[in-house]
């Protein structure tokens, strides 16, 4: 394979993206495609899926390629490298002779070579759910609501009604209710075609939202009753980081 | 990892023979019978207690004494038959006079529990009591500060290559000695047994 390189302008942002992906999966492959870089993976217990898209324009350097090239990585190893970034560093990922070279481009060029992890080349489809409710809101509001829910219970209920989205949790430790009014200042779009209500594991959602909100200001939540939730975080330069989490069943 | 039931049975039989003949720690000298564990090898939920007591030591089966009777009652109240799940202990031999297992005894027995988790590959592991919770949460790097601090939620942990949700709760004996604790045990077991996350691939 010929040498291939992508350069992302902000290494710290890239660390946050990788950290957000690693909530769901330990190893997976970035697919470098003509339109941009993608990654889609399931968590090992098959409860959650992560779906990343970073458009090619978001990169400082991006190869002209006809077909996709996959870069399989272990995110724990990649995070170890990226945690050492300095402010203003850029990050390059290069595939050359079957190795993945991660370069932190700052006052010096620091390179670490990692083995390329073999992953299934087949691309997963995304869940086919007809969502009946959509709420576009502030990512940190979602993250805070889920932290509140996590304080009392390991399951959390999302209920989208005509007037508001309710995020509720209860147990013998207490009860939490967070209301996001459709006219509220942190609600940018509210479209409920049919009320929707589903219960989810708090642990997945609290991890996802707290990591993703470091790199995203705006999140879109989509719901349908007893169906997976979709949480899509808008990330810099037109990218998005979307998670699907399966509902809890009794 | 064995993935057919027959393969799992063969592997578990071999492991049980190893446990029954184990001399890795001094507890072997005072035991009557080792107590490897029992139940459904394809269980979604595994219960892990602390160590066998007198009755268990006699019969070679886990949770058959008073605490076991309470556990059976709680399980049937939740509509779960004991045979649907897998039950074992952190330590497979009875500590004399039902004292707490020592760290070296827990360490000596740890590979057996890890192997059982690999064979059964449950999605949920319920840690009954502080010794079990400390050990199982330790795989996820969770700092253990007492069972009351960790109970009431689930923890995603990888144990010997198996991704599980650990649900820590009080030991049934603690609910036996203090019946006011019983609702906690019931609520935690309900969380572990009654609810689960759907499989996202079912929606693809």
Question: Care to give the gist of this entry?
Answer:
The complex is a heterodimer of chains A (250) and B (204). By secondary structure, chain A is an alpha+beta fold. Helices cover 17% and strands 48% of the residues of chain A.
Map the helices and strands.
The complex is a heterodimer of chains A (250) and B (204).
Chain A: E1 4-8, H1 11-21, E2 27-33, E3 36-42, E4 48-55, E5 59-61, E6 69-74, H2 75-82, E7 90-96, E8 99-105, E9 109-115, E10 133-138, H3 139-150, E11 155-160, E12 164-171, E13 174-181, E14 187-192, E15 196-201, H4 202-212, E16 218-223, E17 229-235, E18 239-245, E19 248-249
Chain B: H1 5-20, H2 27-30, E1 38-39, E2 45-49, H3 54-59, H4 66-77, E3 86-89, H5 103-120, E4 124-128, H6 130-138, H7 147-150, E5 155-159, E6 162-169, H8 172-177, H9 182-194, E7 196-197
Parallel strand pairs in B: 2-3, 2-4, 4-6
Antiparallel strand pairs in B: 1-3, 5-6
Helix pairs in contact in B: 1-5
Overview of this structure, please?
The complex is a heterodimer of chains A (250) and B (204). Chain A is an alpha+beta fold and 250 residues long. Chain A has 4 helices and 19 strands. Chain A has helices spanning 11-21, 75-82, 139-150, 202-212, and strands spanning 4-8, 27-33, 36-42, 48-55, 59-61, 69-74, 90-96, 99-105, 109-115, 133-138, 155-160, 164-171, 174-181, 187-192, 196-201, 218-223, 229-235, 239-245, 248-249. By secondary structure, chain B is of the alpha/beta class. Chain B has helices at residues 5-20, 27-30, 54-59, 66-77, 103-120, 130-138, 147-150, 172-177, 182-194, and strands spanning 38-39, 45-49, 86-89, 124-128, 155-159, 162-169, 196-197. In chain B, strand 5 and strand 6 (162-169) form a beta hairpin. The two termini of chain B are 27 Å apart. The A-B interface holds A 42-49, 124-129, 150, 153-155, 171-173, 199-204, 227-228, 244-250 and B 123, 152-156, 163, 165, 183-184, 187, 191, 194-204.
């Amino acid at each position: 394979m010929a040498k291939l390189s992508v350069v992302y302008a902000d290494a710290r942002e890239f660390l946050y993206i990788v950290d957000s992906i690693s909530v769901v999966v330990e190893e997976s492959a970035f697919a470098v495609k003509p339109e941009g870089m993608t990654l889609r993976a399931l968590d090992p217990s098959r409860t959650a899926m992560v779906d990343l898209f970073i458009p090619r324009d978001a990169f400082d350097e991006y190869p002209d390629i006809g077909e996709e090239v996959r870069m399989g990585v272990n995110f724990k190893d990649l995070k170890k490298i990226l945690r050492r970034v300095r402010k203003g560093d850029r990050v390059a990922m290069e595939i050359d002779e079957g190795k993945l070279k991660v370069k932190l481009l700052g006052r010096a060029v620091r390179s670490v070579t990692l083995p390329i992890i073999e992953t299934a080349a087949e691309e997963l489809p995304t869940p086919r759910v007809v969502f009946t409710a959509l709420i576009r809101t502030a990512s940190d509001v979602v993250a805070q609501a889920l932290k509140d829910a996590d304080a009392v219970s390991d399951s959390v209920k999302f209920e989208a009604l005509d007037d508001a989205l309710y995020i509720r949790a209860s147990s013998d430790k207490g009860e939490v209710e967070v209301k996001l009014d459709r006219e509220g200042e942190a609600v940018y779009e509210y479209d409920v075609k049919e009320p929707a209500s589903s219960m989810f594991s708090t642990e997945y959602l609290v991890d996802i939202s707290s990591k993703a909100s470091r790199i995203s200001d705006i999140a879109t939540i989509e719901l349908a009753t007893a169906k997976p939730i979709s949480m899509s975080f808008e990330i810099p330069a037109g990218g998005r980081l979307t998670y699907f989490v399966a509902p809890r069943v009794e | 990892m064995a993935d057919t039931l027959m393969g799992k049975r063969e592997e578990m039989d071999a492991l049980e023979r190893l446990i029954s003949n184990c001399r890795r720690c001094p507890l072997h000298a005072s035991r009557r019978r080792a107590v490897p564990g029992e139940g459904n090898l394809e269980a979604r939920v595994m219960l892990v207690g602390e160590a066998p007591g007198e009755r268990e030591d006699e019969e070679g089966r886990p949770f058959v004494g008073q605490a076991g009777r309470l556990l059976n009652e709680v399980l049937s109240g939740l509509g779960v038959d004991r045979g649907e799940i897998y039950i074992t202990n952190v330590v497979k031999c009875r500590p004399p006079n039902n004292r707490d297992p020592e760290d070296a005894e827990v360490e000596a027995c740890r590979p057996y529990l890890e192997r059982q988790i690999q064979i059964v590959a449950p999605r949920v592991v319920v840690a009954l009591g502080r010794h079990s919770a400390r050990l199982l949460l330790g795989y996820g790097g969770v700092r253990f500060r007492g069972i009351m601090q960790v109970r009431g939620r689930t923890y995603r942990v990888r144990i010997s290559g198996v991704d599980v949700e650990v649900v820590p709760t009080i030991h049934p004996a603690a609910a036996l000695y203090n019946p006011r604790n019983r609702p906690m045990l019931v609520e935690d077991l309900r969380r572990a047994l009654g609810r689960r996350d759907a499989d996202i691939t079912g929606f693809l």
